[in-house]
Design brief:
about 80 residues; two-stranded antiparallel ribbon; about 30% helix
């Protein structure tokens, strides 16, 4: 399967894991169902930054940003033995 045909599903294990108001929970689910997800994926394919933000019940704003990378170097962390 190539990366263009992957399907993403967001299913919270609990009804409201981030203490969202009902309106914010509905907005987040609408975004994940395609209302914002599809434009975000399109932006990433164009090489642009994509993001999403929500407001928690206590007024704290949480924001996620994703930016595409052309090259990502991964290294293995060496842990000391016992």
């Amino acid at each position: 399967m190539d990366h263009h045909s992957q399907e993403w599903t967001i299913e919270p294990a609990v009804p409201n894991p981030f203490a969202l108001s009902p309106d914010e929970a509905a907005r987040a689910l609408a975004w994940s169902d395609g209302g914002g997800r599809i434009p975000a994926l399109a932006a990433l394919h164009r090489g642009e930054v994509a993001g999403f933000s929500i407001v928690l019940r206590d007024g704290i704003r949480a924001e996620w940003r994703v930016r595409p990378v052309d090259y990502l170097r991964l290294t293995v962390a060496h842990r000391p033995g016992p």
